[in-house]
Fold this protein.
Amino acid sequence: MAGQSIERREILCMLALAAGAAGFPGFCRWSFACGHVGADITQIRPTAYRPLFFSAAEYATIERLADIIIPTDETPGASQAGVSEFIDLMVSRDAALQPGFRSGLGWLDAQSRKTFGNKFLSLTTAQQTSLLESLAYKKKFRAGEERGREFFSLVREYTVMGFYTSEIGLKELDYPGLKFYAGSPACPHKDDPEHLHLPGPKG
Amino acid sequence: MPPQIYDVIVIGTGAGGGMAIKTLCDAGLKVCALNSGRRLDPEKDFRNHRATWEMKFRGFGDPATRMKDTPGFLDSEYNQGAWEREIAFTTAPGTKWMWPRASAVGGKTNFWGRSSARFGDIDFKAATLDGCDVDWPVTYQEIAPYYTRVEKMIGVASTVQNRPSNPDGVYLPPFNFRCLDWILQKGCEKSGVPYLPDRLAQLTVAHEGHPACHYCGDCTFGCEVGAFFSTPWFFLPSAEGSGNLDLKTNAIARNILTDADGKAAGVAYVDRASRQEYEVRAHAVVVAASCIESARIMLNSKSRHWPTGIANSSGQLGRNLCDHLYATTASGYLPQLLGQPSFPDNVSANPIAWMPRWQNLKSAQEEQFIRGYSVYPDGGCAEFPGYYDRIEGFGSSFKHEIKRRYPTPVSFTVQAPTLPSEKNFVDVDPDGKDSFGIPMARIHFQWGDNELRMFQHAKQVSAEIFRKAGAVLEYSADEPEMPGYSLHETGTCRMGNDPKKFVTNRFGQTHDVDNLYVCDASVFLNCTDKTTTLSILAFSVRTSEYLLEQFRRGAH
């Protein structure tokens, strides 16, 4: 996709424009001039991804876990952002991570069978959620599940890393960087320095 | 053909070396500069205009090859090959030391934090005030004109603040306060702590032919347009344009060569790729390889005249290694900003404000520690929501909470100076050589009580400021960051009038060898509560001009 990175020559050109525009009353200091606006964020994904590290079954579980951790709701989630591919790539390049992921996936399936009589991927959504809640929320922790909690925390970490470094993830946050600003960003609430009377969050 | 004899060899191209190179070349001297790493091409090597998803490993770098246990800015995918990976060092038993070295041309100026406060007489005369160690052999009045010249060269954004610990300089317009700054400033006001625009060498307006900052992203990955000071953007082009500079890259200085009288005659270096050793000759040598490396080179320069290292008749070479203790004293979020739209308040991923030293100002002994520390506030909409691990759970509620908290993170970092100590020094490992065949630096370092007390004090005050600013405190560090983390090491070749106690004189010229000069933070008596780069530049221009004067009167 064109226009994602700002080239030096474009920046220098913008700087020259800004120098001219700074005194112009219509110039919006918060607007940015690079090609990020309206960029099409459809993720192009190969139809059949071949994992570098995980087996097909392991990979499918990672994909499912990532999507439970950051689901698609009003905005796109982990699967649209290609998070499982990122996790596979990182784990494939990091020998120290591999045992934790592999044995953790084993633990999860064993626990699923023990609790619900089937491997994790074959459980209902409610069953999957219930298993993971006991790994994710302190008040639901169960004795003897330390390894499971460690694994869940690892998957969650890499899911967050993958999602919020994707174009979809940074769009979700409305990341304000990688743009061109004509002046150093200033607080727009000058009459409320303690910020006690801000308009409520939208939505 | 006889071998070329340069006027001066400068080892290092960072702040100290870069300033020496520029000053000497501009004045017409023939200079050979040695740099241990390669030359960077900002357009190719700096990727801070690149989005994370445009990089294979999303900016984290390849897990198979990246250096472990180092801060994220090191060896990241944004600037590969800029940081030292090959030159090994050792630590004495019980010492922990992190040593981030930027070996690329320009050194750490490519990636520095840009905070640029002047030292003052409160620093230079600290020993008189509190009886610890010795005063600097210079006064503020003497150094002030050099600070002014440096500020004009590099461009520093700030305001006149009239703070007793922080002399004011010549400034470009300051950074604007962001939402979080106004909120924190209120909290500081209620706690009796100053909260002011930092002195920031980042161009808020175009300056001396360099473009103004466009606030695109993380400056510590390197600037593609040169909108903050670094020697490759600011000094080296004019030096190269003068025709007087011969810059040798991937040239790892091994030792300083001496003549029959024990004077400096040149430098032996190892070529990084071929491992071949070469020699260059000159009438004078400037060492500016950064504090620990400068000491290593000099300690490795043994000869009949200098059995323990060149210019070390005092035995003080390598001694008095100082560093800033860095630690997160408070971290959490500002509930006032929960759910607010994202705002470009963290676009340079560095503080724009500071809490300059406010302790021990009325008298030297007000607190449980002597001297003082500064605090840097950080926060805002970062490129990565690093606070996610403070939010429990998963699913839509997790995702929404990450979004809701996006504008709110805030954290304080203390910058506390160590005091010079006999226990903290650099020597050469008697048993080990690095892969270039050069004896390794061995670091001996422990935090002292004074800086640890500052750390505890800073934690208490930070918690109070958080409370009074209405911030939620979620974390404060139990332990400081590893020594070396600040990249602000000083000492090892301290300056002073007594040749028995100091390595260099008050001009950075070694007492023992009059054609050997030191132009980095090695000459500093201690590290003060301020950052080092601006002062390295000011002392380096002064030393370089002193060297020039010696040349003009025929001494070298």
